[in-house]
Amino acid sequence: MTSLGSLLVRRNVLSVAEVRNALTHQVLYGGSLDTVLLERGCREPDLVEAIADITGFAPMTAALLRCASPDVADVLTMERSIALDVCPIHADEDGKLFLLAGLHADCAALDEINYELQRPLSIYSAPELRLWQARARVYRVEVPARFAELDARLQRREKQCTAPGVEELPALASAV
Questions:
Q1: Could you say which of 7, 18, 70, 78 has the lowest number of CB atoms within 10 Å?
Q2: Whole-angstrom Cα distance, residue 130 to residue 119?
Q3: With left for phi above 0 and alpha for psi between -120 and 50, is residue 133 left, alpha or beta?
Q4: CA 96 – CA 15 distance, rounded (Å)
């Protein structure tokens, strides 16, 4: 079992059988385990928190995703963004670069980026879905169909779970 799967089982978010089924699905259909888990009904906040605990980076927020801007597209090519499992999203007035990093982001590669750019980095963990949404904004490309469909499903799921009279939490699904 993967570290993500094990962590979610230990937290009683998923059963061992659910993780095993997700791993089988991943082998058959590809994609990152976090994507497969979202597709199979795992709650995104639980998943984002687990990815943050594994990577050691703060969990991303919807506000960060909304900050994704083409202004930082020249910092890292899209091809390198995909290869490193990261996406630049914003640079502040002091030059700090904000990045989203996926479950498979390589810390040594992030150190290399920091060295190359000679600027401070602020790194936030994110599921593969949100990395692709950020890339769509930064590099002005379409979100791959799998992720567009998943986001639509998450938005529908969120609307179904919101009871009348209950204060709605800021949702990641409505970020893009």
A1: 70
A2: 24
A3: alpha
A4: 40
- How far apart CA 107 and CA 56 sit, in angstroms, is 10
- Contact partners, residue 33, CB within 8 Å, separation at least 6: 2, 4, 5, 22, 23, 26, 103
Name 110's Cβ contacts closer than 8 Å, sequence gap at least 6: 84, 86, 99, 101, 121, 123
The structural domains of the chain, ordered by start, are: 59-139 (3.30.300.160)
143 contacts 34 by C-beta, under 8 angstroms: no
Q: What is the pTM of this model?
A: 0.86
Tokens of residue 13, six digits: 């978010």
DSSP 8-state symbol, 30: -
Tens of pLDDT, residues 116-151: 999 999 999 999 999 999 999 999 999 999 999 999
